[in-house]
Amino acid sequence: MTEVTVTDSLAESLPVDAVVIGVAQGPKGPIPTPDATAFEGPSAELLGTLGMTGAAGEAVKVPAPTGIEARLVLAVGLGEADADGGHDAEALRRAAGVAARTLAGATKAVLALPAATADAVEAVALGGLLGAYAFTVYRTTGEDKPPVGELSILTRHGDAAAALRRATVIGQELNRARDLINTPANDLHPESFAATVRAVGAEFGLAVDVLDETALDEHGFGGILGVGQGSVNPPRLVRIAHTHPRARTSIALVGKGITYDSGGISLKPVGFNEIMKRDMSGAAAVFAAVTAAARLGLPIEVTGWLALAENMPSGSAVRPGDVLRMYGGRTVEVRNTDAEGRLVLADALVRAAEERPDAVVDVATLTGAMRMGLGNRLFGVMSPDDAFRERIVDAAGRTGEPAWPMPLPAQLREGLDSPVADIANQGERMGGGLVAGLFLKEFVPAGTRWAHLDIAGPAFHEGAPYGYTPQGGTGTAVRTLVRLAEELADARS
Ligand code: BES
Ligand code: MN
Ligand code: ZN
Q: I want to staple 285 with a disulfide (CB 3.0 to 4.6 A). Which of 77, 237, 460, 477 is the partner?
């Protein structure tokens, strides 16, 4: 894995393969940023001649000037400067990400991007770590260059250690979530996912409890068992908890962990089923966020609940029309076995709320409808508590994970009425993402502060890499959850 360090002098970090500089997009052409002039870098004229404008996403290589022990200078676009002449954290993260991707195969580079503050150092470090990510465990051809070995951030900010630490922890845990999402469903089952959580939990001192199918049955987790009963790979409910002696607030994070969603008996057609290894992205994000909270020592209790199952059709699978008895006793008519996420989440939400946390947030690749509505770059945030919803949308935007508030319109609830059970798992088609949110709401006790994040769109990136986002699992929601935990900790401690 790429190592990220800081340095206050270019001379001391030489020799390197490359020195990375930032280039702003000015009205008349590219503007190399002043902080980069620890050496005689390329002129605006030269960069313009090479076709650079300074737009975000650009990367132009030029030979390093004589006198410094670097082979090349990599100029990356920062986009237009803000009103105050600076570049926001997301611009820095993306520029560092582009640099890290472009430098795959190199041993060491210095990032001489504008990083004068601790926040800027953190942004550059995180963008670099996330941009350097590569998922190559299944490649045998050796065609992929290894990620850049070391990125050294040039900064005169004297106290960058905490910023570097935060970026490193979040970057490593987010990349672990990406690995889980990218792992194909023939190699990631509920049991092996739970084993990974156990191992990582032991490494960082988290408490991990795993309910296997026998324990789930004993306690009546009918939703998780119902979804998992068609698969030869039995379901699991994992609890992973971070505690802190000074914690005065607690938050429960609940993740949808369908290691493969075939749709079950309501089988998905070709074109929809081959992308469904990603359906555990919510559980991966929760796992990463709790682990990061522990490694950062946040003074708040953070408990993750991973509802893990494989949704498969078979002779033992749940059928459309079956009625499941959920954890806590309520009954659900399964109208569509492909609306499985809300079934596993319902069990986990009831269980999580039993511990009376101050807030509950669930994260799920829940509906195609949310993808239709918001596209592939934003996730939807629903909550009966307007202030809590806005707070999450706000935290998400600031961490570079854009989100949008979505409503829970009461009139859509009656579509979920069932003639035989307390509720059905499928309602009106129109507004399907909101209907799913209304279903979940039924399993959150009144008075519990709760929000639902539908990450079906941004959980997985299918196109060419951009900024620090590779193709494949993105790890979306990890940064939002960590930020939320930090904010709730600050509010009370
Ligand atoms: N996992 C899917 C939602 C999904 C679709 C996630 C595309 C990521 C990309 C979910 O389990 C599902 O199948 N939802 C159904 C619900 C419907 C049957 C009520 C949907 O959205 O069509
Ligand atoms: Mn489904
Ligand atoms: Zn699903």
A: 477
